[in-house]
Amino acid sequence: MAFQYHRSAQTEFKPPLIANENAYLGDVATSQENDPEKPISAGFYRLEKGTPLVYEYTYHEMKIIVDGEFDISDETGQKVHATRGDVFYFPKGSKITFTTESFGLGFFVGQRREGGA
What we know:
With about 120 residues, the chain is mainly beta. It is built from 1 helix and 9 strands, in the order H-E-E-E-E-E-E-E-E-E.
């Protein structure tokens, strides 16, 4: 079985708008075809300055900040100013608020079907 390759995805892939005027997310790769019972999907999430995004996870996700910055908080009161290189695990059921004073770009891997965010 051949591997998949996505050349320059961090700089070339433009995720579509998913919420508000400033939140973008798009899947780049998925294991859905090879493992339809337990797929994982990966891609990029970009937030521009503006409306905060409040998101409740219906799946487990890992995210690494690859550019810019985010202020990330959850319903427990935990708050982090995230910058390039920071890694997060968002458990299924968590309610996360993302904001930024400029922009942030994260690469994610989620335990979900393609387009299931």
